[in-house]
Prior knowledge:
It is found in: Membrane. The chain has helices at residues 16-49, 54-82, 85-103, 109-123, 126-137, 143-175, 188-207, 229-238, 244-251, 256-280, 283-306, 308-315, 318-328, 331-348, 353-385, 389-410, 414-427, 432-441, 448-464, 467-480, 485-496, 501-510, 514-519, 521-527.
Amino acid sequence: MKAERSSGENSRVGGRYxxxxxxxxxxxxxxxxxxxxxxxxxxxxxxxQLGVSDxxxxxxxxxxxxxxxxxxxxxxxxxADIWVRKRLIAIGLFxxxxxxxxxxxxxxxxxxxxxxxxxxxxxxxxxxxxxxMLSDYFAQRSRATVLAIYSSGAxxxxxxxxxxxxxILDTWKQAYPDxxxxxxxxxxxxxxxxxxxxxxxxxxxxxxxxxxxxxxxxENILTEDHPQPVRETLKELMAIVPPFSIxxxxxxxxxxxxxxxxxxxxxxxxxxxxALSHATDSPGQWIVFGFGxxxxxxxxxxxxxxxxxxxxxxxxCRGFMYTIFGFCSINFVxxxxxxxxxxxxxxxxxxxxxxxxxxxxxxxxxxxxxxxNVGGILADRWKARTPNGRLYLGLITxxxxxxxxxTLFTTTHVKLALVMNFMVAGLTAMWxxxxxxTIMDLVLPRMRAVTxxxxxxxxVFLGLAIGPFMIGLLSDVLAGQGYTQAExxxxxxxxxxxxxxxxxxxxxxxxxxxxRDEASRLSRARLAGEPDV
Length: 533
């Protein structure tokens, strides 16, 4: 299958059609996050009606979605590098929107967890392909701004999910106080899933009409279509799923040292699963998380054989590694807040779900939406002045987030807490443009979708897969020691803020490497065996 080509105005870099594509892909990302995090405003209803604990809520909202999102992002990122990107995004939209609607039919914790796994797979198709398309539609000088605009869809989606979810819950409960009289006997949380999932089906049709840009046109590094994209993607999938991952390494003639490393890592992860399952009484969390870790390691090994230049550009580049791990580790706090902040205001400050949906939802939309775009603009301007300009912006946002978040979780005044929540929502959004544009600038055009897939893998592994769960776990532990549900959640969320020391150190370390690694991009690629650069 050959990628569809565009011509004339539709292929013009930064033109009117490029801006139209940006708007459509922005809406895709909004839909992505509405469906991903609608569960946060529904948490208290799910807790009451399905009888789940905080740690189980953290698993459903975080790990069940995140691990499958991360893992399938790798083969789907590869597919985005060699196939029609807009078609891939459209298919993904139909999958995740349909499963969001099916979530409204879930009758148990297990059933909802299965649907969340499927939503993760569907959503994995979107951002790697979108990053790649936008990088081909807009020149490098404006890339941080463009990617920030696209990424602002996350915060608009989060906010709209909370806002719409709160409004649906409130309206449905008022209209049908006796649930047996509601249409099809649906509870408010079930209606919310069904309603918010439907628009994605229509958006998928719109995405399918977009024009595919010429890959690499912004930098005049054109890439030929792959003759067998589906077969190549299946190979990528087989590389991460045990036991096929071992078979794949053998077929690719991996050395005994690689097979030994694979087996050693597998044994270590099994031991980790057993120990953590025993310590936390949450085997499902650690089995899924451990499976994700092993699959990721297997994928990296496979990449080193299948595409040595891409492996070298990513994993042998210190600037890339410090930057991507540094920025992505911020998401332990970002996703932890995104999932638990509605419950925090309901439990700690006694707000009702309608108030939380309106006030907190609008705060995320306004503060996050504005700040992520301001961050992208500032990052491009600071980058023009100094090679490390984007990293400086990242460091500043972390340093300002810590006092704001600590005030949010420790104050007893609800108005001050709401103001601090607005500030935190803005600050934790400002780093996204600098992060995404920096990692895109460190690799070649043909590698951008798979690089973006790894970026999103780390985002969800370091953030969504463990942040909400660990906050929920600590909350359950504290509640078991006699603290109220409100105080246990407050203390757990306060403790999470101190993990921001990790990204602070890693991004600071990246300052010493980024300028040299960006300047040597083409020479590093040639040294790694990349032809025709």
